[in-house]
Amino acid sequence: MYDRLQALFRSVYQREPAAVARAPGRIEFIGNHTDYNGGTVLGAALDRGTWVAVSPRTDGVRRFYSEFSPTVVTLAPGEIGKRSGNSSWVNYPLGVAQALPFFDLKSPIGFDFLAVSDLPAGAGLSSSAALELASALAFLEVTHQSASREVVVKVGRHAENQFVGVPCGILDQGVSGFGQKDRLVFIDCRGPRFETVPLPAGAHFWLFNTHTKHALVDGLYAARHRECMESAAILGVDLLVDATGSQVEAKRVDLGEIRWKRARHVLGEIQRVEEMVACLQKGDLVRAGHLLTASHASSRLLFENSTDELDFLVERLAAMPGVFGARLTGGGFGGAVMALTTGAFGDRQAQEVAAAYAQRFGARVDSLHAQTGDGANVVTPGERSESKSPEQ
Ligand code: ADP
Ligand code: MG
After folding, report:
1. Measured in angstroms, how far is the CA atom of residue 128 from the centroid of ligand 1?
2. Three-class secondary structure of residue 181 per DSSP
3. Which of 92, 173, 328 is the best mutation target for the ligand 1 pocket, counting ligand atoms within 8 Å of the beta carbon and taking the most?
4. In the structure, what pLDDT confidence band is assigned to residue 382 with cuts at 50, 70 and 90?
């Protein structure tokens, strides 16, 4: 990836990159829509991600280019408006540049910016957080600043919440920032507090990307966010994490059917995350698989963010030998399903699933035996195998 990034940077800008950083995508392992409710969540960083190269400019001009959108977007000095249409992807790095001063950090005055990625965008693997974190580290590097991993994570989330306008919690940026190979990241989102938990030996991840995305996905995500906040207000708490199951039952009439379901889902998920941590510590993958499948059922029935395609894949996978459990991963309303499997689940089994999916929906599902990887880091030019992590 480094060589591809450098070659593309040279050909687009006729100069060398001054700083390179990378950040991984992530799998949401369990804890669906718990993050912005102050709950807990477990995720894994992938060995795939987004690489960003930046070189500073003294004239205040900012130029952006991504392999995904191969046209240079040029912003005049001081131009800060949000972009729309084909260049709307620029809002992610631009949002990061705008977010830095909120954390007492400088953003570069002008720059040439370029991104390459081996993550599918919009597949629920958080390509947006990968782009944000890689951008943040590259901007810090060219301005000779350093920040803690936690601050870099918060800068990414700030960009996505405040500039891009997606009310996401800390999960995506937290896992991209704190991921470690062969470990899961546990986040207590209210702190936020980040820890890692070892992945038991013999646990494998398979991802099935449906390439489906609900046309109204952004609005639906925002609607779920709003319903959760309304439920918390009716229950008299700031965030749903502070409510109890019996309070939710006692206020069932006041909540109404929809908000009651959303609250039940969030509290159930938080409970399952706690149980999952205990399962992982014991190496009990069978019980872990049951928790994953129960999480999917809750997303389907109570949070109502699944789709026929995702339900089909989960049902099919959960019934196969070598599969501990499966669930939708990410925001839902399309996207991807994750399965926790033994090493016996391989390409042949994945193809069987894809064939059944093609027969049912007349469409393709892509499978990936996902490998875990390390969190975001600066890649030192000339020492591309070496990397420098943010301060702890
Ligand atoms: P996810 O984060 O699950 O992949 P999102 O909808 O949150 O899905 O983010 C996807 C958006 O992020 C894309 O539509 C695009 O605007 C932006 N994006 C992500 N990666 C890149 C990239 N490498 N180059 C340009 N834009 C990207
Ligand atoms: Mg995203």
Report:
1. 4
2. coil
3. 92
4. low
Q: Which of 3, 59, 118, 172 is catalytic?
A: 172
Q: 168 C-alpha vs ligand 2 centroid, how far in Å? A: 8
Question: What is the average pLDDT across 54-71?
Answer: 96
- 348-376 mean pLDDT: 96
Ligand number nearest CA of 156 is 2
In a shared domain, residues 351 and 252: yes
Answer yes or no: do 272 and 316 share one domain.
yes
Number of domains in the chain: 2
- Shortest-distance atom of ligand 1 to CA 129: 2
Q: Tell me what pLDDT residue 215 has.
A: 67
- Is residue 33 located within the same domain as residue 166? yes
Using 50, 70 and 90 to split pLDDT, how confident is the model at 385?
Answer: very low
What's at 118, amino acid-wise? D
What average pLDDT does this structure show over 189-213? 94
Strand 62-66 relative to strand 110-117, pairing: parallel
Domain of 357 in residue numbering reads as 204-370
Task: Please tell me the residue having the least CA distance from ligand 1 atom 5.
Answer: 122
377-379 and 62-66: which strand pairing? unpaired
Pocket lining for ligand 1, CB < 6 angstroms: 50, 66, 68-69, 88-89, 92, 115, 117, 121-128, 131, 330
Report the nearest atom of ligand 1 relative to the CA of 115.
23
Alpha carbon nearest to ligand 1 atom 2, residue? 126
| Per-residue model confidence (pLDDT) at position 217 | 73
- Residue of 71, 116, 69, 75 whose CA lies nearest to 95: 75
The answer to whether 118 is a known catalytic residue is no
191 in the same domain as 249: no
Question: What is the position in ligand 1's atom list of the atom closest to the CA of 50?
Answer: 23
164 & 179 share domain: yes
CATH of the domain at 194: 3.30.230.10
DSSP annotation of 301 = I
DSSP state at residue 372: B
- How many angstroms separate the CA atoms of 194 and 197, rounded? 10
Whether 389 has a pLDDT exceeding 70, the answer reads no
Look at 387 and 205; give whichever has higher pLDDT.
Answer: 205
Query: pTM for this one?
Result: 0.91
Rounded distance between C-alpha atoms, residue 205 and residue 10, angstroms: 37
Rounded CA-CA distance 331/33 in Å is 7
